[in-house]
Every structure is written in structure tokens, then in C-alpha cells.
Amino acid sequence: MRSHNFALIENGPALVGEDAALEIFRRVCRTRYFEKGLVRAVKDGFVTAPVYLSTGQETVAAALSVALPRPVIFAQHRCHGVYLSFGGDPVRLRDELMGLPTGTSGGRAGSNCVQCHDDGVTMHGHHGLIGENVPLAVGYALASRETTLAIFGDGAAEEDYVLSSLGFAATHRLPVLFVCEDNNLSILTTVETRRSWRVSRVASAFGIDSEDLSDDPWTIYLKAKELTKRGPALMNIYTCRANWHVGVGTDGPVEWDRFLDVKAALEHAGLKDKAEGIEEAERHSMEKVWDQGQLRRLSGR
Ligand SMILES: Cc1ncc(C[n+]2csc(CCOP(=O)(O)OP(=O)(O)O)c2C)c(N)n1
Ligand SMILES: [Mg+2]
Questions:
Q1: Which DSSP category does 128 fall into?
Q2: Which of these CATH numbers, 2.130.10.10, 3.30.70.100, 3.90.920.20, 3.40.50.970, describes 14-299?
Q3: pLDDT > 90: what percent of the chain?
Q4: Strand 233-238 relative to strand 148-153: parallel, antiparallel, unpaired?
Q5: How far is the CA of 248 from the centre of ligand 2 (A)?
Q6: Beta strands in 27-175 (DSSP E)
Q7: Dihedral, CA atoms, 181, 186, 187, 190, nearest 10 degrees?
Q8: Rounded to an integer, what distance in angstroms lies between the CA atom of residue 209 and that of residue 222?
Q9: Are 90 and 284 within 8 A, CB to CB?
Q10: What is the DSSP letter of 50?
Q11: C-alpha span between 75 and 119 (Å, rounded)
């Protein structure tokens, strides 16, 4: 099911262009270091509500956000990376996770339902039924004809309303980019255990341009630009979730870590110093967001 070439494409930074490559890396770093700070904040008891981490899956939203200028976004529960990559304010996300009134939903929705209708980002919050964001995205595209991004998981791809939404978008040639973040897990159950079919092939059968891809950001960037030129499209992207389904625990070493691969690719392209500067700036900026003294003040401890 996941037989795929997981190597990054040769000369990726040159193909996407140096500026885009470094910007993708900056957004990967932003999510990686935001989540790192969040792990600590959970362990220290500053965040007590459930959290769904994007760690390990950062390249998907980072590459999409650089490729697509301002789509209307309908994301699922694992959405911190989507919000941050598309330009969401990390402080407002932190406040949401801490249950503060200054959060993205006034501190009442939490990690799995991040929404934003300002800061240059239009992102609708997830409601709780996996994949329900997909028919909402399709309906939005039908009414507006604006470029719409529907991001969902490999588990959500099995919901009947997701599959019928693909069919509807195909029939009406709606400008939706469907992105399945395929981490091979619905909570703890692998794709192979759950189904015998690929969502990319179902979408193709409906007449939607579809691709199975690795989480190589250079490929995601190039494919997203190409696919969104022609009506509905679907990208099923193989990713590797680093943390538990919910919460900050881990089950040991990950199968792969694209963050490290991207750094190596930038180094290979002669961009080591620039990449290191970007990583350092993002690490510092996210450490400020999760500064312990500030968390104590905010939580009144
Ligand atoms: C309709 C529905 N069925 C079951 C659940 C329980 N549930 C919450 S998250 C989840 C797994 C989702 O897997 P996937 O869509 O692959 O997203 P991931 O967590 O892997 O990012 C399930 C089954 C739900 N929220 N909604
Ligand atoms: Mg999954």
C-alpha cells in the first residue's frame, strides 16, 4: 500500500527556486519548534486539553502554503501545521491551546478545531466528525468558485461523505485541491488493515487528477501548482506522524523525519548557512512564544 519512492527529488531547491525552498523550510521550522514548545507546555501542565500534533508531517502544509496563494482552507483535527504555515499567529494558537479568550476561538475550541478569518488566513474549524470538512469545502467551492483546500487524513478518506464529495466536485469541476495526509494510521490502525483500495484511484475513477506522493516538499510544491490549474485534484501524501494520535507521547523512533532530509537537501544545494539562520530564528521565536515565565503569568500560576 505504501510502496513508494521516498527519496527527495534530485535538485529540489533548484527546481522550486531558492527563495521558495528556503520559505518552505522556514514554515517547516515554525511548526516543528512550535510543537516542541507545546510538548514542554503539556508536560509542565500549562496546556491540559487534548492536543493533536503536526510533528513529522510539517512539509505538507509548508509546501502547499508556499505553492498556493491564499486558498480558503478546510482542515481536519491535526491542523496546527496548516494554521501556522498559512500565516496564522502562533500566539493566538498558543492561547487557544491554553483555553484563553485571546485564542483563535476564544479558548473554547482547542487543538482540533483551529479557525481563522483574519491575519490574511481564511481557515474554517473542524467540527469533530473526521472528514466533515471535505463536503463543507466542496460546498464552499460550489458557491464561491474560489480555490479551496480540503485537508484530511487517510482515516477520514473512508467516510461516505468524503467519497461522495469527490464525486460531486468532479461532476461540477470545482476548484478544490483535496489533500490526504496519509500517515498510515487511523488512531492506531494501519491503512492495510482497514481497506483494500487507494483514495487516489477512487478519485481518478471519478475523473479527478490524482497523485500518490511522498512528503518531499519540493514535489508537493511543484505538483500543487500544476494540479490546481485544472479543476479538482487530489494528492495523497505519505507522511510519518512522530507523536501519538492525541497527546505528546511517542512510540520510539520514527520511520523517517523529513525535517532532517530537507535540511540535508538545502545543505547539498549550498544553502547551509541560510538554512541554519532560518532555523535559529524560528527556534528562537517559538521559544519566546512558549516562554515559561510568560506561561506562568498567562495561566496565573
Ligand atoms: C465520523 C467519525 N468517526 C470516528 C471518529 C473518531 N476518530 C477521531 S480521529 C480518528 C482517526 C482519524 O484518522 P485520520 O483521518 O487518518 O487522521 P490522523 O489522526 O491520522 O491525522 C477517529 C477514527 C470521529 N471523530 N468521527
Ligand atoms: Mg491518519
A1: S
A2: 3.40.50.970
A3: 92
A4: unpaired
A5: 16
A6: 72-74, 122-124, 148-153
A7: -110
A8: 14
A9: no
A10: -
A11: 17
Given pLDDT bands bounded at 50, 70 and 90, which one contains residue 221? very high
The answer to whether 65 and 95 have CB atoms below 8 angstroms apart is no
Which residue has a Cα nearest atom 2 of ligand 1?
A: 129
Longest pairwise C-alpha distance within the chain: 56
Question: In 108-122, which positions are buried (b, 16+ CB within 10 angstroms) versus exposed (e)?
Answer: ebbbbbbbbeeeebb
Residues lining ligand 1, Cβ inside 6 A: 77-78, 128-130, 152-156, 159, 181, 183, 185-187, 245
Which of 94, 97, 101 has its CA nearest to residue 34?
Answer: 94
Give residue-wise pLDDT tens across range 126-168.
Answer: 989 999 999 999 999 999 999 999 999 999 999 999 999 999 9
Q: Which residues pair with 150 in a beta bridge?
A: 74, 178
Q: Where do the structural domains in the chain lie, given as residue ranges? A: 14-299
Torsion angles phi and psi, residue 193, rounded to 5: -70, -30
Question: Which residue type does 112 have?
Answer: N
CA 7 to the chain's CA centroid = 20
Q: Is the pLDDT of residue 2 over 90?
A: no
For the chain, the first-to-last Cα distance in angstroms comes to 49
Best mutation site among 54, 60, 80, 130 for ligand 1 pocket (most ligand atoms within 8 Å of CB)? 130
Which of 284, 290, 280, 288 minimizes the C-alpha distance to 25? 280
SS3 state at 69: coil
**What is the spatial distance between Cα 219 and Cα 192, in angstroms, rounded to a whole number?**
25
At 169, list the grid cell: 466536485
User: How many residues can be counted in the chain?
Assistant: 301
